[in-house]
Write a structure and sequence with these properties.
Layout: H1 2-21, H2 25-52, H3 63-73, H4 78-85
Helix pairs in contact: 1-2, 2-3
C-alpha cells in the first residue's frame, strides 16, 4: 500500500508542479509511466489479497492473465473496469 501511495504522490507532483512549468514530452512520458506503475502495483496487491482470501487459486505470472483475473473479481464495479480497459 505504501508503494501505491508513494507513486500517487510522485505522479501528482509531476502533474501539478512539473507539468505546469515544463511541458516537455519527457515530463508527460514520466507521468504516464508513474500512473502505469501505480495501477500495476494496485492490481498486484489486490490479486495477492484475493489469493489470501481464497477468492482465486493463484496469481497469474503474465500481465494479460492478471488483467483477466482482476476483471473477473471486479466484474460488478464499472468504475474499476473502466480504468482497467484503458
Amino acid at each position: 500500500m505504501e508503494d501505491i501511495i508513494q507513486e500517487k504522490i510522485s505522479a501528482d507532483h509531476l502533474l501539478y508542479v512539473s507539468l505546469k512549468y515544463t511541458k516537455t514530452c519527457d515530463v508527460i512520458l514520466n507521468l504516464l509511466l508513474r500512473w502505469r506503475k501505480m495501477i500495476e502495483t494496485a492490481i498486484n496487491s489486490l490479486l495477492k489479497h484475493a489469493k489470501k482470501k481464497k477468492k482465486i487459486s493463484s496469481v497469474s505470472s503474465n500481465v494479460v492473465g492478471r488483467i483477466e483475473q482482476i476483471r473477473k473479481l471486479f466484474k460488478k464495479n464499472k468504475d474499476f473496469l473502466e480504468v482497467i480497459n484503458m
